[in-house]
Amino acid sequence: MTERDRSRSTGPALEKWYQFLRWLVPTVEKFPRTQKFTLGDRIQSGALDVLERLIEATYSRQATPLLAAANLGLEKLRFLFRLASDLRLLDLRRYEFAARAIDEVGRLVGGWLKVSRV
Q: Fewest C-beta atoms under 10 Å: which of 6, 27, 87, 89?
C-alpha cells in the first residue's frame, strides 16, 4: 500500500502525523538521559495523544471535540519543542522540521474542523 493509498483511507492529517511520529520516536531517544524521561516522555506522550484523537475523529460522527483536542495537543507540542530547542536538546534543523510538521498538521486539522462544523 502506498502512502497515497494510506492517506485516502485514514485522511491526510492522520497519515502526516503518523509519519511525523516515525521521525519523533528515534529523535527523542537521542535526548540526554536527564531529559529523555521528563521532557522527552512528555513530548512523546503528547504526540501519541494527538495520534489517538485523530484516529478517533476519523471514525467518529462527532469529530469536532476530538479535533479541537488534537489541535490543543498540537499547540502544547509547539511549546514543548520550543523548550527542547532552547535547552539545546534539538538542533536547529530538527526543531525546524518539527515546527513545520506541527504547523502542516495544524492546518490540516483546522480545515477538517471547518468541514466537520458544517
A: 87
Helix (H, G, I), strand (E, B) or coil at 31: coil
Q: Which long-range contacts (CB under 8 A, 24 or more apart) does 19-27 make?
A: 20/47, 20/98, 20/101, 20/102, 20/105, 21/47, 21/48, 21/51, 23/97, 23/101, 24/98, 27/90, 27/94
Identify whether the C-beta of residue 63 lies closer than 8 Å to the C-beta of residue 112: yes
What does the pLDDT average to over 27-54?
Answer: 96
Query: Of 80 and 3, which is predicted with more confidence?
Result: 80
14 vs 104: CA distance, rounded Å: 11
Which segments of 1-118 are extended strands (E)?
none
**Euclidean distance between CA atoms 101 and 96, whole angstroms:** 8
Q: Per-residue pLDDT averaged across 81-92, rounded?
A: 97
Q: Could you report the per-residue pLDDT of 4-21, keeping only the tens digit for each?
A: 544 445 789 999 999 999
